[in-house]
């Protein structure tokens, strides 16, 4: 058994699920095959939905604070296994150790949040216009939640959805990315341990289905799946959204971003450089919130570009499992090819490229490590308006703040955005109704690294969904409005009178 397989077994995964299956898994670190995961047939996925629905009808009757206990136990399992699961994230998704561990910490944080939430699923009491009446709203469990996730946050996104969904009284079916099924198997094994300790949860409350996008499509098309929460590319969301809408199901779409930082002439440049480099090259540019565009005041554009080039030259690129590495590999060859095509287009569109080439191919002939690219663009051309899921940072300059804001908003995506400025008026305007049109708008902090306490998601082609903190839980429940008459009269609406 290889060390990866031993790691899986130590996390409680049954070897039968990853030894002789049809889904071949490769580590992006060296391209080596690490497992053969068993995939579920379409009949098995449909049967899983039926079982989930049966589990839902029981779980919805369990008091919410008791449901919270399950998530508390899940948090404990995650704490106890943070290092092992984080390492597996690094091996399967290519993240550096700190990011792999950080992803598991996010899971722990959302569990803590959801445990508290289990006692706070509040509805309103509303003043009635009729005498002797009271109105209120009640939040009820929604049904089966299908969670479809992307490769780049292979486990955290599941937890953002599942911790809330389970506390809200729903049953969950998870379809992870076909590129990262091992972290899903391990995470689900930890949830199963928590379920065992919990004792009396219905069987099949949470299930994992492994497969290609067709597996996800079965969840998308099944009317028993009340909510499809899908994270991935805008292409995927364009397919999923209309199908779920056609059957009047509910969707949370968390899709691509094209996140910009505006750097004003008043910015603290030391802070800005740190924020930009972390946002642009962290996870090798493979975060939905990665910084992809820089909009810099012309008076400091040259200086900032030079400082970034200097910082980029010293970036430690390499095996993400080794201490000191800050930039790991791209997920696969297709990601590398897409990056190269984008850089070629940028040159055709008059961009000046620094970096971007493949490195370490002698040591890792089957893996794809790149020098992150900086591209100075004369304008926001077609290639800049597109999300390329790789470490490419386009730099553009501006003269007037209004123009910077217009450039920031003038892309189809609307996930994350930031401004570095010490001008209070610019900062406030940036966050105002006429400012950034993104779901996340930050001041003096970069575009990535959202905390779980806030609602996470974005507008336009990012899909409009919200997950994680704040009142995102409402997306996982249905709202009933109740009117109670405690008088001995029955005043009818609109003054209508029937009978005596
Ligand atoms: P992807 O769209 O290729 O796949 C995502 C998931 O959707 C996978 O599980 C895949 O099997 C499934 N899928 C694809 N087509 C489907 C279909 N027609 N029906 C049902 N399921 C389908 O994305 P990826 O390459 O894994 O991830 C990268 C993308 O995800 C980037 O665009 C990134 O910005 C985005 N992302 C967004 C967020 C966010 O919260 N907004 C978070 C992480 C990643």
UniProtKB/TrEMBL annotation:
Keyword DNA damage: no
Domain Aldehyde dehydrogenase residues, every copy: 21-479
Stored InterPro entries: Ald_DH/histidinol_DH (IPR016161), Ald_DH_C (IPR016163), Ald_DH_CS_GLU (IPR029510), Ald_DH_N (IPR016162), Aldehyde_DH_dom (IPR015590), ALDH7A1-like (IPR044638)
Record keywords, A-Z: NAD, Oxidoreductase
A matching Pfam family: Aldedh
Transmembrane segments: none
Gene3D superfamilies in the cross-refs: Aldehyde Dehydrogenase, Chain A, domain 1, Aldehyde Dehydrogenase, Chain A, domain 2
MF annotations from Gene Ontology: aldehyde dehydrogenase (NAD+) activity
Stored CDD domains: ALDH_F7_AASADH (cd07130)
Active-site residues, record numbering mapped to chain: 254
Entry superkingdom: Bacteria
Protein EC: 1.2.1.3
SUPFAM superfamilies reported for this sequence: ALDH-like
Keyword Oxidoreductase assigned: yes
PROSITE patterns from the UniProt entry: ALDEHYDE_DEHYDR_GLU
Subunit structure as annotated in this protein's UniProt entry: Homotetramer.
Family from the record: Belongs to the aldehyde dehydrogenase family.
Protein name, UniProt field: aldehyde dehydrogenase (NAD(+))
Organism the protein comes from: Advenella faeciporci
């Amino acid at each position: 058994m290889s060390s990866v397989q031993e790691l899986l077994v130590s996390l409680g995964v049954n070897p039968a699920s990853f030894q002789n299956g049809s889904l071949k898994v490769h580590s992006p670190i060296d391209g080596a095959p690490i497992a053969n995961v068993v995939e579920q047939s379409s009949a098995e996925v449909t049967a899983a939905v039926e079982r989930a629905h049966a589990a839902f009808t029981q779980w919805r009757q369990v008091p919410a604070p008791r449901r919270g206990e399950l998530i508390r136990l899940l948090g404990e399992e995650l704490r106890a296994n943070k290092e092992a699961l984080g390492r597996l994230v690094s091996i399967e998704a290519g993240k550096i150790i700190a990011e792999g561990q950080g992803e598991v910490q996010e899971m722990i944080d959302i569990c803590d949040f959801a445990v508290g939430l289990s006692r706070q699923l509040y509805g309103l009491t509303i003043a009635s216009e009729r005498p002797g009446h009271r109105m209120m709203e009640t939040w009820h469990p929604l049904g089966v939640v299908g969670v479809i996730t992307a490769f780049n946050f292979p486990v955290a996104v599941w937890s953002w959805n599942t911790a809330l969904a389970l506390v809200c009284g729903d049953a969950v079916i998870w379809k992870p990315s076909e590129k990262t099924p091992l972290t899903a198997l391990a995470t689900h094994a930890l949830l199963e341990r928590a379920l065992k300790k919990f004792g009396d949860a219905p069987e099949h409350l949470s299930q994992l289905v492994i497969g290609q996008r067709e597996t996800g499509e079965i969840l998308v098309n099944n009317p028993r799946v009340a909510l499809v929460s899908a994270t991935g590319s805008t292409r995927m969301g364009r397919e999923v959204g209309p199908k779920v809408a056609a059957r009047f199901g509910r969707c949370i779409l968390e899709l691509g971003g094209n996140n910009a930082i505006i750097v004003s002439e008043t910015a603290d440049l030391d802070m800005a450089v740190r924020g930009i480099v972390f946002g642009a090259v962290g996870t090798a540019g493979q975060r939905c919130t990665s910084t992809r565009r820089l909009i810099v005041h012309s008076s400091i554009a040259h200086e900032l570009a030079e400082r970034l080039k200097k910082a980029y030259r010293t970036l430690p690129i390499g095996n993400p499992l080794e201490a000191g590495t800050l930039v790991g590999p791209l997920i696969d060859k297709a990601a590398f090819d897409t990056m190269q095509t984008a850089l070629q287009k940028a040159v055709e569109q008059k961009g000046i490229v620094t970096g971007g080439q493949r490195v370490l191919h002698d040591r890792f002939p089957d893996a794809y490590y790149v020098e992150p690219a900086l591209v100075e663009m004369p304008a926001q051309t077609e290639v800049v308006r597109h999300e390329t899921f790789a470490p490419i940072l386009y730099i553009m300059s501006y003269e007037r703040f209004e123009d910077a804001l217009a450039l920031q908003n003038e892309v189809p995506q609307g996930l994350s955005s930031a401004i570095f400025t010490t001008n209070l008026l610019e900062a406030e305007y940036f966050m105002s109704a006429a400012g950034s049109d993104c779901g996340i708008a930050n001041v003096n902090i970069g575009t990535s690294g959202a905390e779980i306490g806030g609602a996470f998601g974005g507008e336009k082609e990012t899909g409009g969904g919200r997950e994680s903190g704040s009142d995102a839980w409402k997306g996982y429940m249905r709202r009933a409005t109740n009117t109670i008459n405690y008088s001995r009269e029955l005043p009818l609406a609109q003054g209508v009178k029937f009978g005596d």
